[in-house]
Amino acid sequence: MAYVESHTALLFDVCPALHALTDAMLPDEIVRLVQAKGQNELSPVKELILRQAWEGETYSDMAKAFHYEAAYLKKVAAELWQFMSEVFEEPISKANMRSVLEARSLTLTEAQLIGPSPEAASSTVRRFTFKFPSGPVPVGSPLYIERPPIEDLAFQEVSTPGGLIRIKAPYQMGKSSLLVRILTYAAEQNYRSVYLDFHQLNDIALESQTHFLRWFCANLSQQLGLPPNLDEYWDEEIGSGTSCSLYLKRYLLASNNSEHDSPLVMVLNEVDRIFEHPPIARIFLPLLRAWHEEAKRATQLQKLRLVVAYSTETYIPLNVNQSPFNVGLPLKLPPFTLSQIQDLALRHDLSWSQGEEGKERLEPLQQMTGGHPYLVQLALYYLCLGEMSLPSLLQSAPTLSGIYRDHLRSHITTLEARPELAAAFKKVVSALEGVSLSPRLAYELDSMGLVVLRGNQAFPSCELYRLYFSSQLQ
Asked: In whole angstroms, what is the distance from residue 421 CA to residue 9 CA?
């Protein structure tokens, strides 16, 4: 995206029409104009498609990068192009959008329609440089907020022979962003590393314990640049679990090659996926525990550093001495504090958030989101666009026309598939005080990030969930 010089940008803020008379349309202006002409039409997913299509990305690229199905994105995109064709009164498609819109300028009426919000106008220079929040925050990004002492503890444990880190947090709380930083630290120490996202497991790998463990070992080999010599170490007579351990110790961690002699950081993300397959969980989870315990002795496994990330622990019965969820360093990612939200707002160049007055302005955002990192990041992104003020954003937040509609729909879909869980959460959001739930239901709602537990009482984790679900869970 091309950016104008700062003094010109300031003039465009003071007089939006100036830009309409001197330059082609920019993606931010297109988004704001489409939003202004049909607020319910431009969902976060449609905006994502618009911005990615502007950069020439294919639907397959978008699906891979942002974890959507390509067919779903195409369906949503068809609605987007139809609406944009109506807005601009000429045919708009993915193929011609950029060429058509770069050839025209904002009219005076359009420029006035998308004029900056009061918050945006208070900034001396508006230069939107932030991408739609999705996926982990890249290393080096000013938008990553540390949550001390979590990062330092993680780096220390990765440097410990046989170390094991357990990162537990609900979806979109920042697990992947922390994992990226652990992997970066490992690279800086000249450690080898592998990363497996269990959401990428295919149906074949989940057919049996043997299929899964061979998939696991083959993927480790591929990432380490080694040929997958599985059959050389695999022996069904001694069992798949033992074969997998031998493969790890005698091949992947072998000392007979100097390239293999450095520590190996093994990052396993979204481990929850295998909880849906008890036979696999019952063999794989004890393996992780066994490798960690064996590493306490002078063995090859001291080179192994395990990092396991998940949203919820399993209710699959495991011997207490076999579970990996009661050993190692546990890290639980907390929500952002008000000070951290203010820090992030200032990093978004929202000058109205400075000082004690700025903190007071942001307090309703903390109450609405509970400090949930993704929800905060999404709000600040839209405030940077200048298409709405903070009060208007908060007013529409707990509705299907607000910026959180896709996030809320995801949760409502999960709850509708689990009537018992939905009924329990309805009690929580309808009560004026905390609610006592069965340990299992309380734990599952906490793992989803929908409640916070104080003693034996469950409370909504934020005002957004209380307001939305109290009306939706009928």
From this structure: 51
Confidence class for position 321, pLDDT limits 50, 70, 90: confident
The pLDDT score that the predictor gives to residue 286 is 94
Handedness of CA 252, 254, 259, 265 (dihedral sign): positive
Mean pLDDT value across residues 58-80: 80
197's enclosing H/E stretch is: strand 192-197
Burial of 41 per CB tally in 10 Å (0-12, 13-18, 19+): middle
Residues paired with residue 268 on neighbouring β-strands, in sequence order: 196, 308
User: Token pair for residue 135?
Assistant: 């996926």
Closest alpha carbon to 167 in 264, 271, 305: 271
Distance in angstroms (rounded) separating the CA atoms of residues 147 and 128: 26
CA-based torsion, 396, 397, 398, 402: positive or negative: positive
Give the integer Cα–Cα distance in Å for 381 and 131.
Answer: 8
CB 375 within 8 A of CB 44: no
Q: Please tell me whether the overall predicted TM-score, pTM, comes out greater than 0.85 for this model.
A: no
- Integer distance in angstroms from the first to the last C-alpha of the chain? 46
pLDDT for 147 equals: 95
What is the tens place of the pLDDT at every residue in 364-387? Answer: 999 999 999 999 999 999 999 887
How many residues belong to the chain? 474
For residues 106 and 29, the answer to whether their CB atoms sit within 8 Å is yes
